[in-house]
Amino acid sequence: MVIIANLIQVLLIAISISIVFSKDNTRVVVFLASFSLLSACLYFLNKAPDVALAEVAIGSAIMPLFYILSISKQREFIVMSHVDDDYLKNEKNQKGKGYLLLENFTDYYKLKLYIFNDAEKAELKGIFRKSNVDLIIEKDESTNTYFLIGKQSSILMNKLAQLVENDDKTIVVKVKESETRD
Amino acid sequence: MEYIPLYLIFIPIISSMIIYLFNLRIINYLIFITQATISVLMIKYFLFINKNPQFASITIGGWDKRIGIELKNDVYSIAFIFLTIFIWTIVSIYCFDKRKNDAKFLFFLLFLEGAFLALLQTNDLFNLFVLIEIISIISTILIIFKKDGFAVRAGLYYLLFNSIGSIFYLLGMIIIYNIFGTLNIDVIKHHIHLIDNDLIIHAAFILMMSAIGVKSALFPVFTWLPKAHGAAPSSISALLSGLIVKSGLYVMIKVDHLFNLYTFKEYFFILGFFSAIIGILFALSQKDIKQILAYHTISQIGIILMGLSTINQITFYGGLYHIINHALFKSLLFLGAGMIIRTYNIRRVTEIRGVFKTMPLTSIFIIVGMLSITGAPFFNGFISKSLIVHGLKEQTFIYFLFFIINIGTATSFIKFSQIFFGKSKLKGQATINEKIALFILSIACITLGLHFNYFNQYLFHVESPVVILDLYNIMTYFITIIIGFILYQTIIKKDYLVFKKIRHMHITFETTNYLLVLYIFTMILWSFKAL
Amino acid sequence: MNPILSFIIILIGIYGICTSKHIIKSIVCFNLIQTGTILLFLNLGYSEEGHIPIIGEQIEKIVDPIPQALMITTIVIGSTITALALILSIKIFHYYGSLYWKVVFDREG
Amino acid sequence: MIKKISLLIILFIMLILFIQMQFDLKGYLNYFSHEYFLSHTYKDTASSNIVTGIYLDYRLFDSIFEASILLIVVSGIVYMTTKEGEENERVFIFEKVKISNLLTILSRVLYPFMLMFGVYIIIHGHLSPGGGFQGGAILATAVLITYYIDPDKITKFSLIIFLEKLLFISILIISSLSLLTKNVLFTNFIPNQTSNTYRSIFLILLNLLIGIKVSLGLVSIFSSFLKEGRS
To answer: Is residue B510 part of a domain?
Structure first.
């Protein structure tokens, strides 16, 4: 019994070392799940079935789920569009100019593009605080230019600004968070 | 009657639930009813305890002391409870205008009060851990209440770093538990001198102290504090700086009394000095109005630590008294700063001008706070600083170090006071509630300064034997101010490169953790002295 | 069963938290330290002849039940802190476009 | 690099000190609680599972705060992920995801068993390993499985939050009922003279409430995670 427990502990040490030195986050989470499953076994061998049950239910079922969910959320690039022409069109043969640009951009960072249309124009002030939109696309009808509005704080915006440098019809606007009322 | 400690904890918690569940504007006034109820209960309990001291502790559930959880009130906890209720009342008056429709904010605020009151009274090591964690979680949520980028990143930093710190507390607790088989502080205190193995005792002490150091922002591990204070709403900054940081110091007093180790007294004195100096150095280089105040919190905590970690009784009570005073004037300053920021919409000290013209009443209150923090005669900061200095007078070198700290504080507040001068076309937007809150706080600052003897006798049962208000101390203060003014004009105003470097210094999260490890390691090295 | 081995896990976690540059990995390392602590507590109270702390027939000795009760609480606390930290990390990503501590804290605004 | 090496050295010193300390510690290990609980728990708390006895009676105060931590975090997360004034309109499960048939069928088979297992663990918490928290977590996983079976199922989100708060208040009320019967707070409210079968009603009730509360809390955290970012 003791030998098995010690073996599992050595295994745990190995897993924790590989967690510390691993660079891929998804792999880290899988390691973590197996880590807590093994530690639940150890709790049981330590004659603590209650703790083992808690660890199995939480540590190796629910927590990895939260991790995976948050990692997948961190791979999204959310675009809110106020444009109703085919700038952001995404069909098999023809893709809109803006869509190509954004696709190019998100591929560079290995992000997943997520576009949704917002019919009514929301007020811009404070929108980034309220919801997790990364980019808002608006169109000025008179001059036919598109505005890509994003947060100044985001490091991704620098790259986007670089991509549209030579394009007159597309302008990247960086919005600074205004000081909130204290 | 003897269950009042429990009512004190659960009345705020239940009323916070009611506020959250109903989410009505009228129900939100419950916050004041709650404050009134618990203050009345507390006064009753205080009188009751003075007559029957045997009821000062109750074991919840009526179990054996070694098995169940005990709540115990002593001199310190009663003083802290009064302070807590007072500050919370002030903060709820201050923020009520803005938050009266915001049931969630009031929910977290009241819940935090309940948890904090529980922390002050509990006499159980593990219960202490749970409550420390609750307090860090609620304060995180309150820090990120504005939901902007600054706040979110500061909140995450605060949450993770504090949780890592409190794991060390848990480790220390594990060692203690395995020796004594109980978690009750009183029982452990009874038996701790029987253990002759220094290594175990020192290890437990070091581990617990490292968690407390994180919680109360001591010298190497203070980096979370300015971030959190800068990002939080002003009322929360006042709470954080006035009380939540003090929770670390309170636990420290408790743990220190539990272990009763003389080895570390000197170590914490030096650490306190370093915290004070570093805090002032950073405060001098900052330009953000809230960051200056936040770094001053670090330096004041250093002063308190210097007071608490001496064997001299008067100095110890000076440190204790300074905790209360600091809570009063620092919340006054933070609340005032919040009003200034809201009026001007900028936070840079160099750009805010003419506050005296726009908000005359508010600036008078802020000046009271500034006089207190620099230790002007007749204000409360003066009393506690003199009490701390009194015990150190014989040691000239230490007295000199203290003098340096005072000069630094004076200099940086002379820099801060530049906001009052000049002209401004803005209109003040202070509401009457906010003015009332500041007024009460400044009155408290002055009263505690004038009638300190009475308070000391009544709360701590100590006499203050020293004649504090002598000419020598008053002269010292004016000399400090003059030197500070000269320093400001010659050095600080020019904004040398050194200060710019300090201002833009970033300590990343992993480095902070490394500093925590170093902090533990220095304690280990220090403990070899005794082994 | 050996407390030293579980202490090594804690040390590895501390090493990880002092060197990891990514927010998610810091949270994972926090979980490592926590699990190590729980293991340490249980290991220290372990005794070979003790039984599982459930009262049945003819049990003369049990392992210490208090650590188990405390550690359930610790697991709850750890998991809630993790959940909160993860939500905050999502928010941070959308604000700063990165999850490296250095990048996040260097950005203005 | 210097940082890493010095860190390794420091950690190594800590390890050596710990090994030293651990040998010393063995001489001091205290067996007070082992004997106390073996002889007293069943009489005191009517629970065969000593851990549950500690958790729900001796140290009930801790458990209440533990439950409140979950509650605080749930309301904090909900605050973080919702826009102002939108909380009432929110629904629990919201977008339809394409799921393979195998998974759906498997979930349909698994669902009742998991539900049963969770309830079993909650209700038998005072007899066998388990209790409110563990069972609640299992129940939460069971509820999450419904996400695969029937993605269109809509539950009002505010109801979940409301119920959670209500359950916390009822936990408080039930645990403080003993003030009326025994004049002590936070312990079993059924008098000591009654048989243990009746006295365990208190444990079952508390376990059940904690279990439902925990599962609701975890489900709402989960759905907050899902909704995060989808304005």
So the answer is: yes
